[in-house]
Design brief:
With 201 residues, this protein is of the alpha+beta class. The chain has 2 domains: 1-127, no CATH class; 131-201. The chain has helices spanning 2-17, 21-26, 94-113, 135-162, 169-196; strands at 29-37, 42-47, 50-55, 60-65, 71-76, 83-87, 90-91, 117-118, 122-126, 131-132, 198-199. A hairpin with a 2-residue loop joins strand 2 and strand 3 (50-55). The N and C termini lie far apart (87 Å).
Length: 201
C-alpha cells in the first residue's frame, strides 16, 4: 500500500512539474523555407494583418512563432505578377501525448503558446510572368496553375473530411465550405491574371 502511494505521489509530481509535452519537444517557433519559381523574389509573411517575417531574396528561411492561424505569403519579382499563397497551420500530433501526461492543463499551455500547431517546413510559390511569347504558352501556364490549385484544395478538403469525428461534422462541413470558397477565389484570381497578362513583347 505504501509503495503504491509513493508511486502515485511521484507520478503526480511529474505531471505537475513537467512542461507541456508539445512545447518541450517542438517549441513555440519554427523555420519555414520560402522558395519561388523563379528565385530572386521578395516575400512578405503576414498573420492577422501584421507582418511577421520577410524573405528577400528567395530562396530563404523565415523564423515564425507557431499559431493555429494561417500565414499569408505575398511575393513580388520584377517581370512577374505578384504571387499570393496561404500557408496553412497543421495540428501538432505530439499534443495528444501532452493530454495524457499533463491533462487539460498541459493542453491549455500548448494551446496558449501555439505549440499544438505547426506549419509545413517548405513553401513554394510559382510567379507568373507579366508577359508571354504566345497565347498558347500563356494558356498552358495558367491551365497548369489552375489544375495544381484544384489538386491542393482537394487534398485539404479530403484531409478535413477524413479526419472529422461524428460529433464534429457540422464544424467540418463549415470548414469544407470555407475551403471551397477559398479555392474558387484563388481560381478567379488566376483567371484575372491570365486575362491581364500581355502576349508578345
Amino acid at each position: 500500500m505504501l509503495q503504491t502511494l509513493q508511486r502515485l505521489t511521484l507520478l503526480a509530481f511529474i505531471a505537475v512539474g513537467l512542461p507541456a509535452c508539445a512545447t518541450i519537444t517542438t517549441g513555440t517557433s519554427q523555420s519555414i523555407a520560402v522558395l519561388t519559381e523563379p528565385p530572386g523574389a521578395s516575400c512578405t509573411l503576414s498573420r492577422d494583418g501584421g507582418v511577421i517575417a520577410v524573405v528577400n531574396p528567395t530562396p530563404g528561411t523565415a523564423s515564425v512563432s507557431k499559431s493555429t492561424r494561417d500565414i499569408m505569403v505575398n511575393c513580388t519579382r520584377q517581370g512577374h505578377l505578384p504571387g499570393i499563397a496561404s500557408h496553412v497551420a497543421q495540428f501538432q500530433g505530439m499534443t495528444v501525448g501532452n493530454v495524457l501526461i499533463g491533462g487539460l492543463i498541459g493542453f491549455g499551455i500548448d494551446a496558449a503558446s501555439g505549440a499544438l500547431s505547426y506549419y509545413p517546413a517548405n513553401l513554394t510559390l510559382t510567379l507568373a510572368p507579366d508577359s508571354f511569347s504566345s497565347e498558347q504558352s500563356r494558356e498552358g501556364f495558367f491551365a497548369q496553375r489552375a489544375a495544381e490549385t484544384r489538386r491542393l484544395f482537394d487534398e485539404r478538403i479530403r484531409a478535413v473530411d477524413t479526419g472529422c469525428s461524428p460529433g464534429e461534422r457540422q464544424t467540418c462541413n463549415e470548414r469544407i465550405q470555407s475551403l471551397g470558397r477559398e479555392r474558387d477565389d484563388e481560381l478567379a484570381r488566376l483567371d484575372a491574371q491570365r486575362r491581364n497578362t500581355r502576349v508578345g513583347t
